[in-house]
Design a protein that fits this description.
Number of strands: 0
Helix content: over 70%
Radius of gyration: 16 Å
Distance between the termini: 51 Å
Largest sheet: none
Length: about 170
């Protein structure tokens, strides 16, 4: 049964541009795991963009969306009355988009990185939970996912280097 809050949220998503963007064009309404769906959204953006444009332009796109995302998250949280609503997925999308753009374009590495990112985003280890609790507003919404992305890049690059070193990966 749909409760009043869910109906109100859905109305907000489809009647307000900031909320629509924050919810990844509605992806954030998917249950369970809206953050996982928001993270997955980075994959088609990554591949479609690279089929037309350069990796450098993709990095610029993600960095611009990161900056705009802070304002979008702030606005959406204010409109919804929930600063970091679980349906706000632009933070996962942007953070993981940066992971995809920075790491080597190797499918097994991207899949492993997706799993690592979701673990870091959900469990919030190594200071991520503290940042999530202490830094508020749109910047806070984006920052904890950026930290998860940074940790993901470090671990994934380590795994990639090991795969090259031991001969498990050949370009």
């Amino acid at each position: 049964m749909t409760n009043v809050t869910e109906v109100t949220i859905k109305r907000q998503v489809f009647s307000n541009l900031d909320v629509l963007l924050a919810f990844g064009f509605g992806i954030g309404l998917i249950r369970p795991g809206p953050g996982t769906w928001g993270t997955i959204l980075a994959f088609p953006i990554h591949y479609v963009w690279l089929s037309v444009f350069s990796i450098q332009s993709l990095l610029i796109f993600w960095f611009v969306l990161l900056l705009v995302g802070v304002r979008i998250c702030e606005s959406a949280g204010s409109k919804l009355g929930v600063p970091d609503h679980s349906g706000i997925v632009i933070d996962e999308m942007v953070a993981f988009g940066l992971v995809l753009a920075i790491l080597p374009n190797v499918i097994w590495l991207q899949i492993v990185s997706f799993l690592i990112f979701r673990v870091f985003d959900i469990w919030k280890p190594m200071g991520i939970a503290r940042v999530d609790a202490q830094v508020k507003g749109g910047f806070g919404v984006m920052l904890d996912d950026l930290l998860a992305a940074l940790y993901t890049i470090i671990v994934s690059l380590g795994l990639f280097q090991l795969s090259v070193h031991f001969g498990w990966y050949h370009s």
